[in-house]
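Collaborator request, handled under Task 6.
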Amino acid sequence: MYTQKVRNLSHNSAGIPAEPLQVLWDLSVIASIITALLFIVYTSIFSNLFHSVLQYARTAQWSRFIVRPSVIWATMGSLLLVFRTILWFWYRPAASAAWNNAPSVTVIIPAYNEGQMVEKSIDSVAAARYPSEKLELIVIDDGSKDDTWHYIMRAALRHPGLVKPIRFPENRGKRAALEEGFRRAEGEIAVTIDSDSVIERDTLLSIAGPFRNSRVGAVAGKVSVFNKEEGIIPRMLHVRFILSFDFLRAAQSTYGAVYCCPGALSAYRLSAIRQVLERWMKQTFLGEPCTYGEDRSLTNFILSEGYDTVYQRTAVVHTVAPATYTKMSRMYLRWERSYIKEELRLFKVLWKRPLWSRLITLVDVCVRNLRFPISYAVLGLLVFMCMHDPATILRLLFAIGLMSFLNTLYYFRSERSWDFIYGILYSYFSAFTLFWIFPYALFSVRSRSWMTR
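Structure tokens returned to the collaborator:
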């Protein structure tokens, strides 16, 4: 059943054949993106919202301290977006590993209270196309309190000689479970997969391909949502995930610095892992042991050793996304706390990168992080303006819709799916319901709670 679902998820929903319309399709969407960029620049300069803000800045002297930095940042952000778009078009995935020359691979699946989903994850690995003599699968039950171990053992009995089950008597955390897998791994490449995720048949061969380059230490896979039919939140997150992975990571991959190889699907050169394993396990932040954000943390450690981290578009995993606002908020809160910790470390790591990669990363990091103080300052200014001129809210809604439409064009080109509409909806949803996540994460950054474990 799960294999049929994966086929359905990976199907070209627009029904457009790869050839001979591929080139025409790409040219059409590229033209749409360029047109949208020009239109947004034009409307940003001549829109009522822009003029309203400038006019307010002339009357309220204090607001100039917000407006002027915001205009400078918006200009920098627009140029960065154009540059990322160029890199995204430039990106090409590496060729998959050849069957007769594939490296030995150890797949590691840590699980905690996952229930039957872990069995589907194991089955997807067993069904993957990869030389059986070069594949091992280690599944760690991290002290689950439900029937997770039952499903692990049931899968192990169906796949004798492949699955190596390990059971912790009590919960020790995902990082400890991964460490156990890394220490027992015998392959040249370690592939980590979340226990609520299933991979496509060619994913293992695909994700092993980039390791032909000896500079590559880690590879990020492409993450989509397994359960997007369950509601509007998973559908919105599906678009969000694709944009995050296929746009941002594809651009980062061109200069060998993908900032986060995700827990849902990543691959690591095992020799590189063993160089950093002890430090990774002992990592602390402000005196507290780090208990989450293990994927981004490990990526930073790999980058710090001088390796490249890249993205492989053709290595696809489908992961279960939160279906409720509460669960989604907890997920984002955990991610933002990890982001804050590891972004500070990235400032140290980037100086060890080659010059070209270092310069791009430095600009990207600076512009990306300036959005937080500027966006919240502008938000406060717009709220104040709305109190004096309620029509400002309509202009703001128009601006959000315009920018989200541009973002969804990237999704439309990548996935050829009309689900891009949910990306526009997500922009409004996040603007009004998720704005509190980052400030709360900042003030609670020392928290060790996983919140979903």
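The cover message to the collaborator said: "The chain has a mean pLDDT of 84. DSSP finds 16 helices and ten strands in the chain. Please let us know whether this matches your experimental observations."
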